[in-house]
Amino acid sequence: MRFEPGRVILHRHFHGHRIGLLKTAVVVADDERGLLLWVPRGAPMLDRKTVDNRGLRSLPFSEWLVTDTKLWEVVWNGPSLLKWLPRGEDHSVWWFRDEQGRFTRWYVNLEESGVRWDDGHVAGVDIVDQDLDIVVAPDLSWQWKDEEEFVERLAYPDGYWVADEAAVRAEGERVVKLIEAGRFPFDGTWCDFAPDPAWTVPDAVPGGWDRPRER
């Protein structure tokens, strides 16, 4: 399954079987290397928080597991974001920019390899976020991110959606080798990306977003 450039799709992050985060994105490219997505400022999103609007990181994981939550309608309010999901690999790479559109850093999101779906009127890609991440500066220096949260949540195997800590860390270490060697995608590719001015996203998340997770 491949998506046509310019198509709007839903990038859904799952916590087990529940959507934790959903971004509306435009397909830039979809080829043998993977799926490249553009998330413009103002793109509609859904973000799971407590019913009194507290996020996952605002309370201990043990409390999160027993607290009522819901999906809040929000928008992407940062500079436009480029995201690449390599085929068959357990991570994605994001290109962050400043307010002037200049590249500032890469962000490696460790996640289960994306699974695509297409219902005709709406389509998307589903991942399970594995929480541990890597932040990479333009000079290729890097650091782990969210390691404390990752370790905290692993202590609750009955409620946490990550089952194999070693596999997550091994994937991160594999990507670190690419970073340190300055190899694709950390070789400057797409750092000067400019979206097609004709691309748009809807004002709200399209209907059909709540279909079951694709396996």
Folded structure, characterized:
It is built from 3 helices and 11 strands; from the N terminus they run ββββαβββββββαα. The protein starts with 7 loop residues before the first strand and ends in a 34-residue tail after the last helix. It is mainly β and 215 residues long. The longest helix is centred in the C-terminal third of the chain and has 17 residues, at 165-181. The protein is globular. β7 and β8 form a beta hairpin. The protein has a single domain (8-181), classed as FomD barrel-like fold. Strands 1-2-3-6-7-8-10 form a 7-stranded mixed beta barrel. The protein has helices at 61-64, 147-154, 165-181, and strands at 8-15, 18-31, 34-39, 44-50, 69-75, 81-86, 91-97, 103-111, 115-118, 123-136, 142-145.
In short:
This protein is mainly beta and 215 residues long. It has helices spanning 61-64, 147-154, 165-181; strands at 8-15, 18-31, 34-39, 44-50, 69-75, 81-86, 91-97, 103-111, 115-118, 123-136, 142-145.
